[in-house]
Design goal:
- The chain is α+β, with helices and mostly antiparallel strands.
- It is built from 14 helices and 13 strands.
- Strand 4 and strand 5 form a beta hairpin.
- Helix 6 crosses helix 7.
């Protein structure tokens, strides 16, 4: 048996799906938030009967699929739906398909306190809350159990999440359900919810007013910026420091993201969706700068569904090897400053009064890097 986090306490071996806690027959495993803001399982040894079920069900050891995925550059032909999506509007098409069949949608939503968690809905308008990008780890809570309840009622269920969350659900339900549709996003990494909360609070302290919304990516750019917070009075301030800490410097991400078992061409969901980076290398005439999705069909079930929804999609097939040359295909390294950064949070040196300033310090580009990127942009224009 592979050694799990429950055996080693090595944080890189746990993706936080919580399956071990859900399947424990004695309910003696709890998901506890650590000093970095991530959830990890803790066993109450006084109640544990050493049945080993928690370790057998660990989702961090995925098996290989045999299906040969099909890859497409795709966009929703409904311009309004594509405009209101982060990328090419593929998720909205899947949502419409499931709701039309009286199904249920599970996805990540963000509440008014900027907490991100999984929930479900069967209302078409309400499902819009699952569409926008949320660059932070979502809390699954009791989602897996709720999914299984709907499946046993013969309801069609669409579950969307990160690849590790999707595979965790597959392990939990334990068998193939024809009425379960799994859709994973192309995930870069999972940032800390605690850091996001402190980051927003720091903006509020600096501005002396409340943040009303946060936009990790918005097609309706304000002053050319798609990443910003909006205050109650309508003022907007960019959050590029947070974006750099997450996607470029890898300062604030979950430890397991640096050794992710799900970054490969062998996907675990029925559908994989994300931005199609490098579209200009394949179909320059296809890219209208309004959002193009990478769409992967990973199972026979997905193939059958695609045949029913494809009339709503404009698409071009792409060789999988070429597509992965430009799209996320490797583990992200940890920042050399990560340990010191989270140590500062643990001892209170970094707090909601100064976290933005310190994140800027740890993510600032050197003159050499800034010059290199400047000339890369110039060359790209030519």
């Amino acid at each position: 048996m592979n050694e799990t986090y429950l055996d080693t306490k090595i944080k890189k071996t746990c993706n936080g799906c919580g399956v071990c806690a859900l399947v424990c027959p004695k309910k003696c495993i709890k998901m506890i938030e650590d000093e970095e803001g991530f959830l990890y399982p803790e066993i109450d040894k006084r109640e544990c009967v050493n049945c080993g079920k928690c370790r057998k069900m660990c989702s961090n050891f995925p098996q290989k699929n045999e299906y040969q995925a099909k890859v497409y550059a795709a966009k929703n032909i409904d311009e309004n739906q594509r405009k209101n999506s982060t990328s090419g509007g593929m998720f909205k098409i899947l949502v419409d398909y499931v709701i039309e069949q009286k199904g249920v949608i599970f996805g990540a939503e963000m509440d008014e306190t900027f907490q991100v968690f999984h929930s479900f809905s069967d209302d078409i308008k309400e499902c819009q809350k699952y569409s926008n990008s949320k660059y932070v780890r979502s809390n699954l809570k009791s989602t897996y159990s709720q999914v299984k309840e709907f499946l046993n009622q013969n309801r069609i269920v669409l579950f969307s999440g990160t690849p590790c969350q999707v595979y965790g659900l597959k392990i939990f339900v334990g068998k193939e359900y024809e009425n379960l549709i799994l859709c994973e996003i192309v995930c870069h990494a999972n940032p800390s919810p605690k850091v996001l909360n402190m980051f927003i609070k720091n903006h509020e302290i600096n501005a002396k007013k409340r943040v009303k919304e946060i936009y990790f990516r918005n097609k309706n750019k304000e002053n050319g910026n798609s990443n910003y917070v909006e205050f109650d009075d309508g003022e907007k301030r960019d959050i590029k420091t947070y974006i750099r800490a997450f996607s470029e410097e890898h300062l604030i991400n979950r430890p397991s993201c640096s050794e992710c078992k799900f970054v490969s061409k062998n996907r675990k969901a029925d559908f994989t969706i994300g931005d199609f980076w490098g579209i200009d290398k394949f179909f320059m005439d296809f890219d209208d700068k309004k959002g193009i999705s990478l769409l992967m069909i990973n199972t026979d079930k997905a193939d059958r569904i695609f045949s029913k929804i494809s009339k709503k999609i404009e698409y071009r097939e792409v060789d999988i090897e070429k597509a992965f040359m430009y799209n996320h295909n490797c583990n992200v390294p940890q920042s050399k400053h990560r340990e010191k950064f989270f140590e500062g949070i643990s001892n209170g040196f970094i707090n909601e009064n100064n976290i933005i300033k310190i994140m800027e310090k740890y993510t600032k580009k050197t003159i050499f890097i800034r010059t290199k990127w400047f000339f890369k942009r110039i060359l790209k224009k030519f």
